[in-house]
Amino acid sequence: MDLLTRCAFVALIFSFVSCNEDTEDRKVDTDVINIPMSADEEMDKDVLPEIVFEETEYNTGKITQGEVLDFTYKFTNEGNAPLVISSVQGSCGCTIPRNYPKGKIMPGEGGEIEVEFDSDNKWGEQTVTVSVVTNSSPALTQLIIRTNIIVPDNMKTNQ
After folding, report:
1. How many domains does the chain have?
2. pLDDT tens, position by position, 44-58
3. What is the pTM of this model?
4. At 116, which CATH number?
């Protein structure tokens, strides 16, 4: 192994093992796993995180086919435990979650989920969703984008 390769390898190792105070606090481990009910009991929601979005639906009205739109869904953890987002998935290839918090979101803190919608090869009224899975109850939240895509006259084919 030449010197440059060794230096790159060492730098890579340091990037994985180095940490700062904030990263350690946000690390997701077993302390966020909490099952506050059994088959015979009701759920105690007072010990869970609660994700509350400012908006869960955007309606763009009419847009031109080919436009790419960006949306930001802002949320707050209004529960009493750390919130963890385990996955964010678009309902189709045209709806792409670009960024969301990957660690713990403490009670009272918030965050944003950034989503991109590409209207290329789409027309008419469209409703797409973004599924957000968390450790709250309910575990699944659906974010919605509604739009009406207009095809310019010079691009119309047999649609």
Report:
1. 1
2. 567 899 999 999 999
3. 0.72
4. 2.60.40.10
